[in-house]
Amino acid sequence: MAEPVNLNRFKKQKARAEKKARADQNAIFHGLSKSDKTVAKKLTELDQKKLDALKKSNDT
Questions:
Q1: DSSP H helical segments within the chain, as ranges?
Q2: For 29-40, b where at least 16 C-beta lie within 10 A, e where not — what string?
Q3: pTM across the whole model
Q4: How many whole angstroms from its chain centre is CA 60?
Q5: Residues 12-36: what's their mean pLDDT?
Q6: Contact of 41 with 48, CB cutoff 8 Å
Q7: 32 and 26 Cβ atoms separated by less than 8 Å
Q8: Whole-angstrom Cα distance, residue 41 to residue 22?
């Protein structure tokens, strides 16, 4: 006889795949992910701080 198969595992795998496909589609529609937005924001803040530091050091 064949070995029994756990159908719940296959249902969960299918649900995960559908959820990932939906998330990928939403990422295309809505642009950058939250982590990408935070990284970009932190980089611009760091660049701005560096520019401000240079401006202050050149003024003196």
A1: 7-30, 34-59
A2: eeeeeeeeeeee
A3: 0.46
A4: 42
A5: 90
A6: no
A7: no
A8: 26
Residue 3 clears pLDDT 70, i.e. is over it: yes
Domain ranges of the chain: 8-59
Alpha carbon 9 to its chain centroid, in Å, reads 27
Quick one: how far is CA 10 from the chain centroid?
27
Type of residue at 40:
A
Total residues found in the chain within this entry: 60
Pick the closest to residue 57 from 12, 49, 17, 24 (CA basis): 49
Give the Cα separation of 25 and 3 in Å (integer): 37
Residue 37: per-residue pLDDT: 86
